[in-house]
Write a structure and sequence with these properties.
By secondary structure, the chain is mainly α. The chain has helices spanning 2-14, 18-94, 103-110, 124-131, 141-152, 154-176, 199-207, 218-223, 225-260.
Length: 262
């Protein structure tokens, strides 16, 4: 093609048709410019399509992550609502001294309180895209901003859960150390809610026969003001955690709906 245009220019010069030559040269330049502009347009279109596909894939993967978050949050709600029920039961017996709980039931209701939750945040897709600089080419800036705030607010869940854990370790465990744990049997952990299977642990402890003939004075712990103070403190922290979880659930649902319709 280049040789073809070259021959035309040479022929025009040989014929002394300088005016036509310059007209032709200008036309050729215009064609080249148009070609470059078309090529740039195609290249820009390809880049836009690529960025669009990357953005669509990103939000598809984010929806998968949010679905995992949703399942976790449902578990956290169940865990902490049950914790409230156990604390409520203990407080009822604490404030009704004429009611006898019995060591087995006492063990079943205090044992779940040793457990707390380590929250997980499915942020892999978001962090990966952010570190690769992909957000610069995304069009859904407001949605990205809200998604960023959703992940940043995870610290509220972490703080609420760690508050319960620290309270268990500093107040509950030292109090319960006064009661030997030889009373534990196969059903002691029946009320425990945990992502890991803890049945083997309680079965193992129960399988080791206790020959000490210890009298388990759980009433001493049940009636101490320290246990009442603990139960109320744990209940307050648990209600706070539930509030943070529900708030996050609302934000998650709104994000899912917006991403699905963006």
């Amino acid at each position: 093609m280049i040789k073809f245009f070259k021959n035309i220019r040479k022929k025009l010069l040989d014929q002394g048709r300088t005016g036509n030559y310059f007209k032709y040269a200008i036309g050729e330049i215009v064609l080249v410019v148009i070609g470059i502009l078309i090529a740039l347009q195609i290249n820009n279109w390809n880049d836009e399509q690529k960025a669009k596909r990357i953005e669509e894939n990103f939000f598809e993967n984010v929806l998968v992550d949010l679905k995992k978050d949703q399942e976790k949050l449902n578990y956290y709600i169940k865990f902490h609502i049950k914790r409230i029920e156990y604390l409520d039961t203990l407080l009822t017996y604490i404030r009704n001294p004429n009611r006898t709980m019995g060591i087995d039931k006492f063990g079943e209701y205090v044992e779940p309180l040793f457990y707390s939750v380590n929250p997980t945040n499915n942020v892999t897709t978001f962090d990966s895209a952010k570190s690769m600089g992909e957000f610069n080419n995304f069009k859904e800036k407001e949605l990205l901003k809200d998604l960023s705030r959703y992940y940043a607010d995870f610290v509220l869940i972490e703080n609420a859960f760690s508050s319960i854990t620290r309270f268990v370790e500093s107040r509950f465990e030292p109090l319960m150390y006064n009661l030997p744990e030889g009373y534990m049997n196969d059903s002691t952990g029946s009320l425990v809610i945990n992502e890991e299977d803890v049945k083997a642990f309680y079965k193992k402890v129960a399988s080791i026969k206790d020959n000490r003939n210890i009298t388990y004075d759980y009433e001493m712990i049940l009636r101490t003001p320290m246990l009442e103070n603990y139960v109320i403190g744990d209940m307050g922290r648990t209600y706070n955690a539930i509030g943070k979880i529900r708030s996050r659930q609302t934000m998650l649902t709104q994000l899912q709906e917006r991403i699905a319709h963006h």
